Amino acid sequence: MGERPDVTSGRSLVRYEGNMNNMSRFVYILESQKNKTYYIGSTNNLERRLDEHNSGKVKYTKNLKPWKLKFFKKYDSLTEARKVEYKQRRDIIEKIIKGQKIIMGV
Question: Degrees (nearest 5) of the Cα angle 84, 77, 48?
Fold first, then answer.
């Protein structure tokens, strides 16, 4: 499991020892403070990406802001992070289709 960040509503602030964007890639989960839905994504710059979500620069999330960072995990490559992101989306969709309960624990 990834490190638990300190976050605030609106613009998320992440406290992380060292340079968190130095050769790191992330999978992250956001929660909309507007309607409590979740968004999963991957990025090579977590702080920039959170700012983009909360400033309305991301088409899919702009109408559901503000977003709060609920979880992130660091990976060695963006390819690896994206594989995890896509697998998580697939797994969630399959559970919805099968009518299973989805539990988002961090």
Answer: 90
Which architecture characterizes domain 1-106 according to CATH? 3-Layer(aba) Sandwich (3.40)
> What is the domain partition of the chain in residue ranges?
1-106
Q: What tens-digit pLDDT sequence spans the chain (106 residues)?
A: 444 444 433 334 444 444 444 558 999 999 999 999 999 999 999 999 999 999 999 999 999 999 999 999 999 888 898 999 999 888 877 777 777 665 655 4
- One-letter-per-residue 3-state SS of the chain: CCCCCCCCCCCCCCCCCCCCCCCCEEEEEEEECCCCCEEEEEECCHHHHHHHHHCCCCCCCHHHCCEEEEEEEEECCHHHHHHHHHHHHHHHHHHHHHCCCCCCCC
pTM above 0.90, yes or no: no
